[in-house]
Design brief:
By secondary structure, the protein is an alpha+beta fold. The protein is 40% helix and 20% strand.
Amino acid sequence: MITWVHIFPTTVIVLLVCALNIMIWRDRLSGRTRLTAATVSGVFFLLIFIGFQSMMGLPKLISTEWLVSADEVTVVSYKIHEKKTIFLWLSIPGKIEPRNYQMPYDAQIAKQLRRQSHQANRTKSKLKMKNPFERREGTLNQEKMFYPEPQKPNPTKR
């Protein structure tokens, strides 16, 4: 999940790196000041790299997804932390790899997710999620968000 806790320090570090680069290339400064600015700038670049690398494996809040739009996705896996959050591993149409998402905990959604997951296991079908990236204001709708994939009809005999 990317929050202000991640965005603010990253922005500050990027601005510091820009300021340090200005100091490095400025003519009036001594060699020692330039060397110090270059060293500090290199350390900040390393911090930015490490920070982004550590964020790559974290789940993203499903409500903050801007780049993906899908009417229906497949739920590969899920984990519910009671009264805290719901983690979802979603397979998005057109994408090869599944993506890791997080949504706020809601007792009704968690109950629906468990029931529909058991139903999908019983019918040996995939668990689907409808409109996962739709922006919802306030509480989540009572609509059916999760459902097992409908069974394909048997081929007709001739």
